[in-house]
């Protein structure tokens, strides 16, 4: 067991630093797919989160509960539903995007949007109501008001985005089902790990897993540094 | 109130904006997907036989089983086919059941599968046409060198299983409902045992590799596919004790989806079926050059081939 892990670590470092073309391609492609999906999710979730946090309307709690439920949406379920929609025999079959990167972006967007929505709504709702009144009392325009709200909650919002990103980059079920794990086309790190494991290439699978964990850690580290910067002023 | 109305307006406009971003984002993403296919095949397309000009519809979805992908055979064959014909193949490796269902629904153009009974059903229904024998690989019974149940001398695999059960020699099963596990249960049934039980019969619930490790540690018998065994042979204290008879074979056929059949149920999907591409793929799989590659595949790594080319043979003659 330990030997396998050490071999994997060695091979991972070699693959990473020798810039193996296939591994590099898969890694960059993974970042591209998950990055695009996360950006789209932000564009959908943030305005909705602002609406949910700032406005009261009938059924609001229901919508929030749906978003919270969606946080735990199993990727394979998303994969199945997106497949049924996008297959040639499905209602959106004529788009012909099944087994393409676009289908993967759609599936990952469905996975990460509820996560970002639920967490950013919670983040925005935590802002003191009195602060809003004060901002308004000081004569801020609605646009300035929204901007200040986002600024006030920026660290929690960033955490929400990272959670969405993390959810997408680590899922394998949906990417496998709607992307098809096609070499040089729709293969991402997670699906490549599954393939190499079933091939019995545990060293390559481990190497890929180290790259995936490194990416996830780099993103988390970056977020932690930004978050912690603000506390420095408090103590000194 | 005025402020609130303005807020609403703003939120609405931001949402519309983001929707536009989403839609344009999707549009931008699909485009490289369609144009990203290789253009090198335009002049090579003439070699495809039925194809006289570069294929208009390049996308060809091949539904197949995980075994063909895991072995690495498709990684060798598909680039050659793409180079020769200009089609862009999307190999989708799934379970046999789904691979056949995709063909039946028109979600795949061509199938490469190993479930002869289910395949024939599909052909009889009219959902699949042009079914051709391509190759086979096989399962083997492995066990400790000293062979306590003496299966080496058994007439065939069913007799071998019978004597393992009689001697209560240790047998390790995958017990994970995989194709290999199903094959094993089928053999027990043929041996007249139903579902074996007892201390001598142990189920790991794990993949083939892990199960081989367990069998090796415990000096037990197990049923395995040849590829996984060969890949791990050096680390195992197991030997091939029974091989080659018809009930141990895994026979692969290639066949194409019938657009006429799909038309009845789903005209939209039928329009997208790449009939020419599927025919070109079937022809490619049974062509002498491809058959030669299949027969050579794995020899350099394992010292023996993983698949045996069978195009043009009679299915019933295999394993005799």
What characteristics describe this protein?
heterodimer, A: 236 residues, mainly alpha, MetI-like fold, 11 helices, 80% helix, 0% strand, B: 320 residues, alpha/beta, D-Maltodextrin-Binding Protein, domain 2, 2 domains, eight-stranded mixed β-sheet, elongated
SSE map:
The complex is a heterodimer of chains A (236) and B (320).
Chain A: H1 2-17, H2 21-54, H3 60-71, H4 75-86, H5 101-125, H6 129-137, H7 142-152, H8 154-170, H9 173-179, H10 189-199, H11 202-235
Helix pairs in contact in A: 1-11, 2-5, 2-8, 3-5, 4-5, 4-9, 5-8, 5-9, 8-11, 10-11
Chain B: H1 2-35, E1 59-65, H2 66-70, H3 73-85, E2 88-94, H4 96-105, E3 110-113, H5 116-125, E4 128-143, H6 157-167, E5 171-173, H7 179-190, E6 201-203, H8 208-218, E7 222-225, H9 226-232, E8 239-242, E9 249-257, H10 259-265, H11 267-272, H12 275-285, H13 288-296, H14 299-302, E10 308-309
Parallel strand pairs in B: 1-2, 1-3, 5-6
Antiparallel strand pairs in B: 3-9, 4-7, 4-8, 4-9, 4-10
